[in-house]
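User: Okay, second chain of the day. Same drill as before: sequence in, structure tokens out.
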Amino acid sequence: MRLKLEFDERFLERASDPGQLDAIVEHARRQVAVARTLYAQDPTGHNPGILGRELGRLGDALRVGDDPEAESVLTEVLGLWTAVGKDRPAFLVRLKLADVAERTGDPAGAAELLDALVALIESEPEQYGMYRDFALHARGTFHLRSGNNARAREDLAAALRLRRELGRGRLVQATREALDSLPIATEKTES
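Assistant: Same drill. Structure tokens below.
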């Protein structure tokens, strides 16, 4: 059972089929239970990765359903990925935790985390550069929702350029829609 996502009118990710979300969460909980058992029997080999993937799926489903448990599940998977040295999956979890921070009423925490992730991409482009468009889109839509239109426009325009260059069709459309929702910028001219 796979979680399919779309963006809502505020450019937050939501389940494409909200009616299936409960079933997806329950399925993910069962998968996590099995993965925990395997990991408890042998915390080496593939078992940390299996547990991390299943926790990530559960955390993602809880996140898009605005479930308060999302933060603890995603924090757990972040700890697991960090412990086993999986920096890229840990980066993606931090991106999701920024979303959870905003959804749970901590916009300052979300902004701080998004800024840190973009800075990390800039300081280590070989490691994290592949996520630049995702981080810029996330930060841009955060600023859009916060009313910081200038920052939103800057990040979304940069994300759109990258997504076009990379040929990410569906993602190009999502970023274009977010950018198009911004009020038209007016230039101030000196008289």
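Residues 18-41 form the longest helix (24 residues).

User: Thanks, on to the next one.
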